[in-house]
Amino acid sequence: MKRQDYLSWDEYFMGIAHLSAGRSKDPGTQVGACIVSEENKILSVGYNGMPTGCSDDDMPWDREGDFLETKYPFVCHAELNAILNRSTGSLKNARIYVSLFPCNECAKAIIQSGIKEVIYGDDKYADTDGVKASKKMFNMAGVKLRKYENTNRVIKIEL
């Protein structure tokens, strides 16, 4: 008889998104994303961080201050990195698992890439104009939104 306590697809892919978030150097917010095909094959992963070639040690990580002294004009979000990191093929009809609800800029990239479903973890910025804009665009473009149903399963990885 096969084992019964294996990970569901949602647990597996959201787990990979959270594991990817662990690569972020951002001291305040770590976000991960995992893009999956209709056949449940991983197409790409990403996390929030500085663009390739820009040293994490030489870039600002502050959240407040003069705009150019903060992380905001520089950091690539997890969703955008996952979209840009795909090695080949289309993302049409794919789904994206992301640990934090996408901002309006990432929403545009998700829509333009053909992703048709967003499964998200935290929605802590739901009341911001950026997330309200994301939800409006997703709705208009027919992108399905689904809150990840936390199973509270503990997954331990020993390295």
Automatic annotation (TrEMBL):
Annotated GO CC locations: cytoplasm
Transport in keyword set: no
Cofactor(s) of this protein: Zn(2+)
GO molecular function, one term: zinc ion binding
Domain CMP/dCMP-type deaminase, chain residue ranges per copy: 8-145
Active-site residues per Swiss-Prot or TrEMBL entry: 79 (proton donor)
Coiled-coil parts of chain: none
SUPFAM superfamilies in the cross-refs: Cytidine deaminase-like
CDD domains in the cross-refs: deoxycytidylate_deaminase
Positions annotated to bind Zn(2+): 77, 103, 106
InterPro entries named among the record's database cross-references: APOBEC/CMP_deaminase_Zn-bd, CMP_dCMP_dom, Cytidine_deaminase-like, dCMP_deaminase, dCMP_deaminase-rel, Deoxycytidylate_deaminase_dom
Domain of life: Bacteria
Keywords of the record: Hydrolase, Metal-binding, Nucleotide biosynthesis, Zinc
Zinc found in the keyword field: yes
Pfam (any one): dCMP_cyt_deam_1
Gene Ontology biological process terms in this record: nucleotide biosynthetic process; pyrimidine nucleotide metabolic process
Family per record: Belongs to the cytidine and deoxycytidylate deaminase family.
Entry-linked PANTHER family: DEOXYCYTIDYLATE DEAMINASE (PTHR11086:SF18), DEOXYCYTIDYLATE DEAMINASE-RELATED (PTHR11086)
Name this protein carries in UniProt: dCMP deaminase
Organism of origin: Ruminococcus albus
